[in-house]
Amino acid sequence: MPADPAALPAAPDPDQDARSTAPLRFSAYRWYLVAMIAATLANEFQTVAIWLQLYESTHDPLSLGLIGLAGLIPFASTVLIAGHVADACDRRVVALWALAALTLCTSTLAGLSCAGVVRSHVWVIYAVVAASGIARSFLNPARGALGAELVPPAMLEQGARLRSSVFQLGMGVGRSVSGFIYTLGASLGLVATFSYGVSAVLLIASVLATLAISRPPRVQVKSVEPMLLKLTSGVRYVLSSRILYGAMLLDLLGVLFGDAIILLPFFADLVLHVGPEGLGLLRAAPTAGAVLMALVLARRPPFAHAGRILLLAVAAFGIAQACFALSSWYAVSAFFLLCSGALDFISVMVRGAMVQVLTPSHLLGRVTAVQQVFIWSSNELGAVEAGAAARLLGLVPSVVVGGTVTVVVTGLTAWLNPALRRLKRIAQGVEGHAPPAAAGQGGPEAGAGAGASAPRQP
Predict the structure, then answer these.
(1) Angle (CA) 443 454 302, round 5°
(2) Contact 311, 250 (CB under 8 A)
(3) Are 86 and 372 in contact (CB under 8 A)?
(4) Coil, helix or strand at residue 3
(5) Is the dihedral of CA 286, 332, 397, 174 positive or negative?
(6) pLDDT tens-digit profile of 19-59?
(7) Could you tell me which of 326, 196, 340 has the C-alpha nearest to residue 261?
């Protein structure tokens, strides 16, 4: 539900906002970003520790791919419920409980790793990842929707772009340092335990920053819909929009086939011959590219042809991944990973702005939940697909084929979904119609034009 406009400071001129960091004027939004960065760093440190523990224990690419499946199944099973909870309850409180659960999961990994249980019983990792998946299913919709409550409506697109940039910055720092954190733990005789411990401390910091967020009370939109309709309203809203459904499906298929990040431990060891520090820098390269792209776009106006830019970015992402796989030189491999991250940032930013700007606030939690299903499905099923393809086709051929498939999928999307291809400025809605959030409309059909309703984000 939209925050009371009277409780938020008046927005400056929109053209001036597009060239400033206006959302940072609000202390609640600053704490929101701090909480997000701390949780992002924690996730990156924990991810590298899990990857390296499994790699050292099994040396099986499929074992890394199954991490994604272990997180996806519980996540997908609960995320629609979590989206409804994010719309029906205090989003900050929901985020706090989810962060507390993640802290408990990470602390459990630290304790079991210290006791030597994980190395001989790798199923423990999958169990904790599954529990974390449930916690994230509640955190992501609540936190995504919470951000829209902290700035005036006129700053929503700018806030979405800023949040994407800061998130990528946190990922970049986390991925750059994660390998060194793991190596430091090994030198202390703690190995993965140290990384898990640092992650737990960062999650506690995220909890404290979330507690510091204050915002105007949210206006609750009463609904007498049956519970099943409430739970599926986000799905229905997404499916009613050819543009947003097309963008989310494109992201799912593009990452499902094109992203090889889960195989980086194998490329680092077998192709590029580098250790944990080199692996950490490889993982950081895509995020470094995203941060650079964020800096380039920070003071530029929104894309005049957002749909076309989205399609080109996804196709180029697939090409960059294929080029990475064909390289046997560390610097060249890192360069193509950097390019893939820059291109992926464009895709994420465009889709994120769609959700934040064009979704009615009272549906934002549920639509964000649907978006998260697409994101997690692409990331986690993509990890399984990458591991299985590497086993069947070989390490390098599997990634080259995957990148090629991504290009083909993008071409088919552009051909079959002309509404997405012709999408211009997001803030103007579809074919010049006002977006539902701005027009105060609540239904998925609001703001529809050219046979499609207004979009949202992935």
Answers:
(1) 140
(2) yes
(3) no
(4) strand
(5) negative
(6) 445 788 888 899 999 999 999 999 989 988 888 888 777 77
(7) 340
Using CB atoms within 10 A of its CB, is residue 325 exposed (0-12), middle (13-18) or buried (19+)? Answer: buried
For 227-289, strand residue ranges (E) read none
* Domains recognised in the chain with CATH numbers: 23-218+226-439 (1.20.1250.20)
User: Measured between alpha carbons, how far is 37 from 167 in angstroms, rounded to an integer?
Assistant: 6
CB-CB contact of 324 with 274 (8 Å)? no
One-letter identity of residue 65: G
Residue carrying the six token digits 């050819």: 242
Neighbours of 27 (CB within 10 A): 13
Angle between helical axes of 123-147 and 61-88 (0-180°, round to 10): 40
Tens of pLDDT, residue by residue over 51-106, are 888 877 777 766 766 777 787 788 878 888 888 888 888 889 999 999 999 999 99
Q: How far is CA 453 from the centre of its chain?
A: 24
Q: What's 268's DSSP letter?
A: I
DSSP 3-state percent helix, strand, coil across the chain (nearest 5): 80, 0, 20
